[in-house]
Every structure is written in C-alpha cells, then in structure tokens.
Input
Amino acid sequence: MKTTALLSVLGVLSPSIAHAQRCPLADTIYYNGNILTGVGLHPVDDHSTPQRVQAIGITGDRIVLTGTSAEVLQCAAPKAQKIDLHSAFAMPGFNDAHTHIADAGLQRLSANLDGVTSLAEMQSRIAAYAKTLDDPHTWILGGGWDHTKWPTKTLPTRQDLDAVTGSHPAFLYRVDGHIAIANTAALQAAGIDENTPDPPGGHIDRDADSHPTGIIREGPAVSLVEKQIPPPSTDVRRKALELSIQDALAHGVTSVQDFSTWDDWLVLESLERENKLPLRIAEWIDFNLPVAVLEQRRASHDFNDPILHLGMLKGFMDGSLGSRTAAMEAPYNDEPGNSGIPRFEQDNLNQMASERTIAGFQLGFHAIGDRANDMALNAFQAAQQAGIPEPEFLCEGNERAANRKLPPDALVTTPYPCHAAPFAPSEFRFRIEHAQVVSPGAFERLPCIGRSAPRRIMIAPGKSARRSLSVRPFTFAHIALPPVPMPET
Output
C-alpha cells in the first residue's frame, strides 16, 4: 500500500500504511469496492492515472488507510464494523464553494418559481400557492423566476402580481437574488411611492409617470420591503435548512461554503449540538457588520470545529448581469442609460477592507462587472498595504504606495503592471466570487495582491456573460490558474 498526501481541498483520502505491524486499527472498514481516492487528480500528484483502491479503513472521523481488501481487513479492530460494497463505486464527497442553503430551503417552502417559462406560468404558480394560505393578509414570498427565459424577456410588474395575489402582500426574488418584484400591497407596506428616493447602492424602477413598477434592485432597496416582512420562525428556518442539507447530500455534496443569515447560523449550531448536522459547513459573515460585532461572532464558535465553523467575510460590489445591476465601466448595449449599480464608494470600501484585514479576517467579494472587479482589486490592494508594516515590493506607477503610512490618495486606483518581487509574508487569501467581466489590466494586477489572490479568483461564466452583446465593452476570460501546493498532514 502506498503512502499518499492528504489534500483536503480535493477531499482526498488519508494515507495507507503498508506494514501490518504498524497499521492503525480501523473501527469501520468498507471493502470489496471500486473506490476513487482522489490521488492523481491534482496537478501536483505524480500519478499518470487516478488512484483506485478496494478498501478504506476508518478510525473515529478519519480515513486512516486505503488499499486492497485483504490489506485493510488485516488492520480491523476486534469489534470493527465491516461493510461489503459488492464492487460499488465510491469517492470523496464534493465541496460546493458557493451556496445559500437557507434561501434555497425557504424557496422550497414558499412560492417556488424556479424554471417558470413565461409570465403566465409564474402567475399560475403564485395563484396556486396563494390558495394554500389561510390568512388573506399573509405575505406571499418565494422566487426563482428568470424573465430572460421567457419569450417576451420582459420584467414583471406589480400589476402582474396584483392580478393573482388578492389582498396578500407579495415579494418574489429573481433567480439571482439581486432584484425582486413587489405587488402594490407590498410597496404600500414599505411606504414606497413616487416620492421615495433610491437608497445608495439600490434602485426602484419607475414607469413614465414616476410610479414604482414593482421591480426593486439590490440589497439597500430590497431591504426597504424586507423590513416589513415577518421573519421566519426558528422551526421554519430549521425545516428549510434540513431540506437543503438533504438535497446536497443526495447529490454527493458533503461540504459547503455558505452565506446565510446569523439567525440561520444559530439554527445550524443547534443541529450540530444535537448531532443532526451531516453536512460540513463553512459559514461566511456579512462584511458590512462593525468590526467589533465581527470579532464577537468569530469568537463565539471554535474555528477548528471540523463540522461547522465561521469563514470569510462576504461583501457585494455589485449585482448581476441578468438583472442589469452588474457595475460596468460603460453602459449596457440594450440599456444605454444604465451602467449597473456599484454598492460602495471606493474610499469607504478601502477603509472597511483595511480595518477587517488588520483584524485578521479573510475577505471575499462578489464582483461581476468590470468596474466592480476593479473596485474589489483596489480594496484588496489597500487592505494588503494596511496589513504589511513595510513595503516588500513596488509596482510601476505606485512607487511607495505599499507603505501603509501614506495617505489614502497615494493608493493607485487604476490597473497597472507589477514588477517581479517577493510576496508579502502574510497570506491574505483575498477572494472574488464570479469575476465574469474584467478589465484588460485586471489579471496583471493579481500577482501584486496577496500570494493567494491569483489562485483564489473564481472565474464563473454565466449565461448572461456569454451573451456578449449585452455589455459594452466586453472583456471575458476563462483562465487556468497555477495549482496551489498543499502541505502534507
């Protein structure tokens, strides 16, 4: 049996011990299987083909050896449980690196509009759901609709909802969660009318007479309505999370990186205490919370908990392409007056990012448009400079901007090439979610911004991104980034 490195990022199985005299005793053994270990799937592995074994041995919550059935069975503890796989295939579970498990579960408990192919079908589903509600004034919630899949590709209006919602206030999210449609009752409950100003970072769509159409774009505006909605009970949150967890496990996903609310997190903690959490979860925290609150929440749970722990801070730079809220440097071709919605002013973002980096938090930013991606990179640069006592490299056009003692206006806020130089000693592990449309100089900046930054950028092209006529100018790349060497454990 061959000793292998444990690459946790790939879910690779633990080392196998060749000699029976020093093999660990296994409490549970799965044998007579076709088991893909994961070794040979990573570029740093010296294997021409992915490794497969017949058996694995488990002690406690760790796979401690792999090999042939005979080799592993000889390491069985006296009362070991032995499971014959009868040649079945087995492999490490998948990690989903971007989830919203609470929202996904709540949608299944409400008006589920996932996959509707027309406004008429959307109205039909809403009407059917409304009939299940006993109280005529209960909010109709849910979502999953995507108007770009409809023949008309036209956004719904409050009047479209009014026709099927009766006296119920209704608020239904688009599939991306960046815009929602409210009916008239919901707008009235939120006090939104023709005189309501757009909050910074949000937008209220209006008709030719300045009356709200019902479309509400991005979190700051969406929250005007959400504040009026009674929050789910703990029991409803628990049921929603359990639905999502079982759905993940049914598809082979055994660990996730998730962004749900703090109330949902508290329910997850309860499930773990009851030994009813079969999914490993790294929970992200809201970047916008005050640093003192973030530190308090970080300290509330053991970071080394292998089942449930708190991870990076999640911040939103913009919205989405399908909602036309992704922040672009130039207007959308089909909406000449719209360049999307940036969620921050750069100076404020830089300060917040620096404060949170100094406090020891990892930053992860949702950024889709080219303007939003540059905002994220600018903030990462500022945060890195704040976290390094002395400059360790210089970038062309930046001079001594790496020195955190310089005033904020010394920071470079446009793309620039970087000279080869040593990286900073700290591993900031900055991360961008999506990065769908990027400026030509964005990739050149990555080596200047944290050692892990080039390897943590997630390039995730969506359908709207592939329809390149939707945005102008369009710069899109899907790149293979260098592998991250993982230490043996």
About this structure: The radius of gyration is 25 Å.
